[in-house]
Each structure stands twice: as structure tokens, then as C-alpha cells.
């Protein structure tokens, strides 16, 4: 548990420095101005794995799930400029759709571990709302989207 504690302290320090850098727009002084989504995906890469390390559920899968969460967050942080420039919320490439689906599932599982079953029973159906939006009563009616477009759009 001490290695997880050490990693948690490093992650907290990274997030503190990164948040100050982003909040106070220090990129103007250093020449590196990260996009907002790049910072958010970086934060996901740094923090989401701890949901699997600090709230273990399946001992054999916790470390691989944490690694997948880190990899998915890093992938989106790395391609964040392409996400914005190419409008991936309207037509993401196949790999991005797969990674978004993976990150969506990992985020739901992390939420279930931390918030419990009640939270997942609320969040999961709401995250799938775009699939059935066109079939709901007038006050809830909206444009429907297929799953391949819903997940990448929600991960933007």
C-alpha cells in the first residue's frame, strides 16, 4: 500500500501544479499553452487509475484496469488538438471511438466503486439518454444518436 500512497502523493502534486498552471494561464510565460480538454484528459490519466487502486474490487483486474484508465487518458491527452481541429464529437475515427467506449466503461466502473450501486443506477441510464432521446415524451424529447457517436461525444 505504500507504493500506492507514494503514487497518490505524486499525482496530487502533479494535479496541484497542473491546476495552478492551467488556472492562472502560466502558459503565456512558458510558451506551452495546453488546451482545456488536454488538461482534463491529463487529469483523467493521472487520477482515474486511483479509483481502481484505492477501491479494489477484483484483485486480478484492478491493476490492468488502472493501466487501461491511464492509457486511455493519455491517448486522449495526446490527440486532444486533433479532437478539436477535426471535430471528433461529430465523427471520431474508429480507434478513438473504441478508446472512448473503454474510457466511458472505466469511468462508470470507477463511479460504481466509489459511489456505490445507487450512483451507477442513476448515471448509466443518463449517459445512454442520446440513444433514446427521440422516443421520449415532448419535454424530454431530443435528437437521437447511435452508440458509436454517443460515446465519443460524451467523452469530449
Automatic annotation (TrEMBL):
Protein's organism: Ponticoccus litoralis
Keywords: Membrane, Transmembrane, Transmembrane helix
Keyword Transmembrane helix tagged: yes
Biological classification of the source: Bacteria, Pseudomonadati, Pseudomonadota, Alphaproteobacteria, Rhodobacterales
Transmembrane segments: 39-55, 60-78, 90-107, 114-132
Protein name: Uncharacterized protein
Superkingdom classification of source: Bacteria
Amino acid at each position: 500500500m505504500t507504493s500506492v500512497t507514494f503514487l497518490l502523493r505524486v499525482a496530487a502534486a502533479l494535479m496541484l501544479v497542473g491546476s495552478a498552471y492551467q488556472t492562472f494561464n502560466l502558459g503565456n510565460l512558458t510558451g506551452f499553452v495546453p488546451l482545456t480538454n488536454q488538461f482534463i484528459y491529463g487529469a483523467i490519466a493521472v487520477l482515474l487509475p486511483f479509483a481502481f487502486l484505492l477501491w479494489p474490487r477484483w484483485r486480478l483486474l484492478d491493476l490492468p484496469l488502472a493501466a487501461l484508465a491511464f492509457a486511455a487518458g493519455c491517448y486522449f491527452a495526446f490527440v486532444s488538438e486533433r479532437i478539436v481541429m477535426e471535430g471528433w464529437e461529430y465523427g471520431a475515427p474508429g480507434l478513438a471511438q473504441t478508446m472512448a467506449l473503454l474510457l466511458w466503461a472505466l469511468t462508470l466502473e470507477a463511479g460504481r466503486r466509489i459511489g456505490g450501486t445507487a450512483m451507477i443506477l442513476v448515471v448509466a441510464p443518463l449517459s445512454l439518454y442520446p440513444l433514446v432521446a427521440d422516443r421520449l415524451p415532448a419535454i424530454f424529447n431530443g435528437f437521437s444518436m447511435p452508440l458509436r457517436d454517443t460515446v465519443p461525444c460524451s467523452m469530449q
